[in-house]
UniProtKB/TrEMBL annotation:
<dbReference type="Pfam" id="PF00155">
    <property type="entry name" value="Aminotran_1_2"/>
</dbReference>
<dbReference type="GO" id="GO:0004069">
    <property type="term" value="F:L-aspartate:2-oxoglutarate aminotransferase activity"/>
</dbReference>
<dbReference type="GO" id="GO:0030170">
    <property type="term" value="F:pyridoxal phosphate binding"/>
</dbReference>
<feature type="domain" description="Aminotransferase class I/classII large">
    <location>
        <begin position="27"/>
        <end position="386"/>
    </location>
</feature>
<comment type="similarity">
    <text>Belongs to the class-I pyridoxal-phosphate-dependent aminotransferase family.</text>
</comment>
<dbReference type="GO" id="GO:0004838">
    <property type="term" value="F:L-tyrosine-2-oxoglutarate transaminase activity"/>
</dbReference>
<dbReference type="InterPro" id="IPR004839">
    <property type="entry name" value="Aminotransferase_I/II_large"/>
</dbReference>
<dbReference type="GO" id="GO:0005829">
    <property type="term" value="C:cytosol"/>
</dbReference>
<keyword id="KW-0663">Pyridoxal phosphate</keyword>
<dbReference type="GO" id="GO:0033585">
    <property type="term" value="P:L-phenylalanine biosynthetic process from chorismate via phenylpyruvate"/>
</dbReference>
<keyword id="KW-0032">Aminotransferase</keyword>
<dbReference type="InterPro" id="IPR015422">
    <property type="entry name" value="PyrdxlP-dep_Trfase_small"/>
</dbReference>
<protein>
    <submittedName>
        <fullName>Aromatic amino acid aminotransferase</fullName>
    </submittedName>
</protein>
<dbReference type="InterPro" id="IPR015424">
    <property type="entry name" value="PyrdxlP-dep_Trfase"/>
</dbReference>
<dbReference type="InterPro" id="IPR000796">
    <property type="entry name" value="Asp_trans"/>
</dbReference>
<comment type="subunit">
    <text>Homodimer.</text>
</comment>
<dbReference type="InterPro" id="IPR015421">
    <property type="entry name" value="PyrdxlP-dep_Trfase_major"/>
</dbReference>
Amino acid sequence: MLNRLEQQAPDALLALIKLFKADDRPDKIDLGVGVYKTADGATPVFAAIKQAEARLVAEQPSKAYLGPEGDMGFVGALIPHVFGNAAPEGGRLDGMQTPGGTGAVRLALALAKKAGVTRVIMGTPSWPNHAQIVSDLELELVGFSHANPDGSANMDALRAALASAGTGDAILLHGCCHNPTGVDYTDAEWDEIAGILAASPALAVIDVAYQGLGDGMEADAYGLRAVMTCVEEVLVAYSCDKNFGLYRDRVGAFYVATGDGDATARAISNAAALARANWSMPPDHGGAAVRVVLEDDGLTASWLEELESMRIRIGQVRAQLGAAGTAGGVDLEPLGRQKGMFAMLPVSKEQVQQLRSDHAVYMAGSGRINVAGLTTDNIDKFVAALAEVTG
Ligand code: PMP
C-alpha cells in the first residue's frame, strides 16, 4: 500500500541551507533561511531566555502532562503584550498554547472549518505554508494580490476581495512584517480594514509571527488591536519563535475572541478537541521559558531590549538597501520603507541561480530575501552582484 505514495518535493529553503553549508567561498551570503541573524551571522539564544531556562532546570517541579491547552500561564502572560488595551473583556478572549505559529495557524483554520468556513481569502504571495495548510484542510483558497509594484499594499484588491466575501469565508491577514513581501498596511489602512471587517460576514484570522521586528512591539500590534476593537469574532495565530528566538522549541499561541464568554468557551473546547487529535499537547519547554521571562520585570526588560536591538539592525540594513537606489533592473528604494525580515526582489529563477553560482548569494527561488542576512560588510557586494545579474 505505501508504495503507492508519490515522491514529494523537499522543502526548498531547507535544501538551500544544505547548499549554502557546502559552499566554501568565504564571502558567501545567506539570504535564504528565515531566522534573524546578528551582524556576525549568528542566531543566538536571547540572554533572558538563557536565564529563564536555567531557572526552569533548577526549579521546575515536574514534567507531568499539562492538557491540550498547554501552559496557560504563558498564554495569559502574552495577552497584554499582544492585545494591550484592545483585549476583549468578560471572558470574550481566551487562548491556548500551540506548537509554534504554524500550529496556531493550523488550529485557527481547522476551527474556522469546523464552524462552517469553506474558503480562505488571502493576499498573495504569502508564507508558503499558509496555502499548504489551507489545501491540507481541503479549504478553497481565494487569492488577491497583496502588494503594488511601488511597494505599497494593494488596498483595491483587498477591498474587492472583501466586498465579494460571504458567509463561509475567512480572511487571513498578516498582523505585521508581511512574509514574504515586507509590505504592511499603514495604521490608516488598518483602520479602514477594521471598519470593512466589522460589516463583513468574513471571519477575521490574523497571523502575528514577527511582533517587535517591524516598528516595535506596540506599533506592530496596531492592526490586530484595531480589528479587535471593531470586530467581535477574531482568531489570532501568534508565534514567539522569532521575537523570543525560540524557533526549534516551537512556541506559539492561538487566541479566539467572540461576542460573549459562552461562545468563546465553546470555541476553545472545540480547539482543544482539535489539538488533542493533532498533537495532544504542545511542547512545554519554550512556552515555559517565555512565561518565566514575562513574569519577571527584569527578564522582560532584557528581552525587550534585545528584541529592540534586532529591530534596529533590520531597520539599518533596510535603510542602507533603500539608499542604494537601483541595482541593475531592481528598484531597492521600497525596501527602505518596508517592514520586518523579508522582501521580494523582482528576479527570475535564472537570476536567482546566477546569483548563487557566480556570486555565492543564496536566496529563495521566489526572489525572497531575508534582509537580516545582510551586514554593513557584505551589503555592497550584494548590491553589486544584484546589479550585475539584473543589469
Ligand atoms: N506565519 C508566518 C507569516 C510565518 O512567516 C511563520 C514562520 N516562518 C509562521 C507563521 C510560523 O512560525 P513558527 O516557526 O512559529 O511555526
